[in-house]
Amino acid sequence: MNTQMITEATLRRRAEAEYLEMPGLKLTAAQASRLWNLDAAASAQLLDEMVEAGVLYKARDGAYVLFSSR
User: Fold this and answer.
1) CB neighbours of 40 closer than 8 A, spacing ≥ 6?
2) How many helices (H) and strands (E) does the chain have?
3) What CA–CA distance (Å, rounded) separates 19 from 42?
4) Which has the closest alpha carbon to 50: 34, 67, 36, 63?
5) Which residues of 38-60 are buried (b: 16+ CB within 10 A; e: fewer)?
6) Within 10 A of 27 (CB to CB), how many other CB atoms are there?
7) Which residues pair with residue 5 across a beta bridge?
8) What is the pLDDT of residue 69?
9) CA–CA gap between residue 8 and residue 22 (Å, rounded)
10) 9-51, pLDDT tens digit by residue?
């Protein structure tokens, strides 16, 4: 496993943990970018991957929310 994959996996675990710790958390891609210190593209990609994995869903207003807290 290369360093980039490890970093991505660590970031994904951190993002999931934050959503699980705060079930009402609702972030836009821009807010997530600031929270996790990512550029806009990386933040959007991470959130979209979490949607594809069924962890999050994207609300009508564009914010990402924990799937089970709907």
Assistant:
1) 29, 30, 33
2) 3, 3
3) 18
4) 67
5) beeebbbebbeebeeeebbeeee
6) 21
7) none
8) 46
9) 21
10) 889 999 999 999 998 999 999 999 999 989 989 999 999 999 9
30 is in which domain, residue-wise? Answer: 3-69
Question: Which candidate, 42, 43, 38, 41, places its Cα nearest to that of 63?
Answer: 43
Cα torsion angle, 49, 51, 55, 59, sign: positive
- Give the CATH number, domain containing residue 33: 1.10.10.10
Number of structural domains, the chain? 1
pTM reported for the whole predicted model: 0.84
